[in-house]
Amino acid sequence: MKNKLLPIIVLLLLIATNISSLFAQNNELRSDIIVAADGSGNYSKVQDAFNAVKDNNLKPTIIFVKAGIYKEKLILNAQKKNVSLIGESYKNTILTFDDYAKIAGGTDKSCSTLIEADDFFAENITFENTIDSRLDKYNEGGQGVALMITGDRGIFHNCKITGFQDSFFLKSNKRTYIKDCIIDGTTDFIFGSGIALFENCFIRNRKDSHITAAKQTVEKSKYGFVFKDCVILKYPGENVTNATLGRPWGAGANVVFLHSYIGSQIKADGWSVWTKEPAKNGFDNWQTTYFGEYNCFGPGFKPTSRLSWTHQLSETEALEYTKEKIFAANTTTDVKLESDWNPILKNDSCHSILPTKNVVENTIEATF
């Protein structure tokens, strides 16, 4: 099986590379602002391009970022609405920084990129934090967020969000759509109060810890983090054998995996409590948490061994997890959302970064 899959993967990657090159050329031509590290664009820094966007702009502003490594601590503030940030490829268009919680003043201040604005769209971009909390100098406060979202109706397509501890912070109870992306990290590396749909994504554990730490409020949100048609693997080269799908940071934590491949690094229990120490905050969170799975597969999918308080959804229950329902205005009472939302991607069927869903572990590692 491994030998048969490799030629198919290589062919798909070559096709994707050629198509991505054509899209890069088209995106540059139709952009409003060009960022180029070599000085050939309107700006050489991404933050300068963000600052140039008009406040409360109703017309979309397209920022094209040429290939390069941009080491900047970025903020797109709440007034800079309707921004599209398009890169050449997530493999060569990298937004990176190396802040971490202890020196930044907290996890939420450690982010490499912060998106406060509504209606943000990113495509073909890597969002990165290079801090590795295993190193001695980071042993206290080594959380380093690569990307933090507080705006509503954000879309990330063909992107990579990569860090170590606490990579992707969906801080606010707002809506985000993540499609065809790669997300790497460890210890609650997808976390927060957000309402998020992850479709057709690769999620990769970097060590034995937890993928999600959801913090939705009890009885306030119908949905939290929804993973649909995703692939859950260990990070290439790492020794991961005892990871979990998540633990409840908040008492209303809500996480569901649907039709997803669960790799062998996920332990039989599948999930975890927040803490096993009764004196600590969050000890009882599991009692009001909703963790569920439906029609998953792979060596790490062991439904009969899951923790007793988690759920295996029925077909009827699973049908409630549509994009339209997840992103409806009435999906939460924690905040007031403006209107229903059904995000549509123009290039959805044109250039996916995912080579195949017929996954054989260790076979696809070289494709990233």
Automatic annotation (TrEMBL):
It is an enzyme of class 3 (hydrolase). GO terms for molecular function: pectinesterase activity. GO terms for biological process: cell wall modification; pectin catabolic process. GO terms for cellular component: cell outer membrane. Pathway: Glycan metabolism; pectin degradation; 2-dehydro-3-deoxy-D-gluconate from pectin: step 1/5. Residues 32-327 form the Pectinesterase catalytic domain. Keywords: Aspartyl esterase, Hydrolase, Signal. PROSITE patterns: PECTINESTERASE_1, PECTINESTERASE_2. Its EC number is 3.1.1.11. It comes from the Bacteria. InterPro entries: Pectin_lyas_fold, Pectin_lyase_fold/virulence, Pectinesterase_Asp_AS, Pectinesterase_cat, Pectinesterase_Tyr_AS. Residues 1-24 form the signal peptide. It catalyses: [(1->4)-alpha-D-galacturonosyl methyl ester](n) + n H2O = [(1->4)-alpha-D-galacturonosyl](n) + n methanol + n H(+). Gene3D superfamilies: Single-stranded right-handed beta-helix, Pectin lyase-like. Belongs to the pectinesterase family. This is Pectinesterase.
